[in-house]
Amino acid sequence: MEKFMFTATLRTLTLLLLSCSAHSVTSTLRCGNCGPTPVPYPLSTGPACGEPWYRIRCTAGTLWLDTLNNSSSYGITSINPETQRITIRPASLAPNTCLSSDFHSRGIQLDPNLPFNITSSNTVLLLNCTDAMLNLQAPINCSSNSLCHSFIRDNAAACTRAPLCCTFRTGGSQTAYIIRVHGGGCSAYQSFVNFDGPPSSAVVGVKKTKWPEPGVELEWVSPGEPICKSPVDCKDLLNSKCLVDPSTVGQRRCFCNGGFKWDFINGFCQSMAMVVGVVGIMGIVGYTKRHRLKRNAQKGLMKKQERMILSSKSSGKSARIFFTTKEIARATNNFSKDNLIGSGGFGEVFKGTFDDGTITAIKRAKLGNTRALIKF
What we know:
The protein is of the alpha+beta class.
């Protein structure tokens, strides 16, 4: 009964806290869905939601990322608000050519003044390259065993007339905002996220092999509290006030009230009591699990000891594990003080001598104490 009440109380408390959390999230500055795709904070599809600095575009139910000076646009294929990463679809090859369709804008060029940058998780294949690329050293690989040759064979027949191609992994200051294509280097490219190489058949076989979907992974910088000019700008962000930003001269932000903490992933002022409550629940669950494991371990130990006693021999006779009250009283001379071995918080230990000569230690619980057991 006690276990049932504890479980029910724990479940009720969990649901209550989750309900509070869900209520808080509904009062965020998050934009609505773009078609079937949720738009998490701080991404912004309009001036009234998200953070303008994190702008993306929703057109006909599809999300797009516009690059530097709106020179090119790339469809957004996935968004992960927990890791703060998005994946865009890179440009394809222009029909019957070995030129990327974004060649006119010199490939992907992100605005360095915006909070997006290219992650180190992309493997980029540069196609239709000039001999100038041969002078570049690692990490760019322009050798005959580069992955780009397998891709050309399987997916870019027009590039077979321009055999020099290269492969590199994004990351670092030179590739944080740009995947460049131009006439003096390489005229086309393709990119894959978390790519370890094509299937083995694509390397050694002749048959065309299906490659993964192309993609370029970007990440965004964690947002601070929303910028404000007056208290009315913070009305949609509950539990906050428009205060001077001590880190930026002349700027004000919607800082959370006392007892609340800024949640930059969901974009709301989260109650510290809710955080403590969730942590407390996790602690209770952890304690309950440890207690159950300890209890099971104790039961296992008692069964093991019981088997050992049953299998042991004493003076050629099987050991006994049950004795009557009269036998125990007679063995200890009615718990005579002369047989007292020691005492503790739970009871006293007496020497006992049974009729067959077996000598044991017998613990007697103190009056009202049910935690002590008779042990031998």
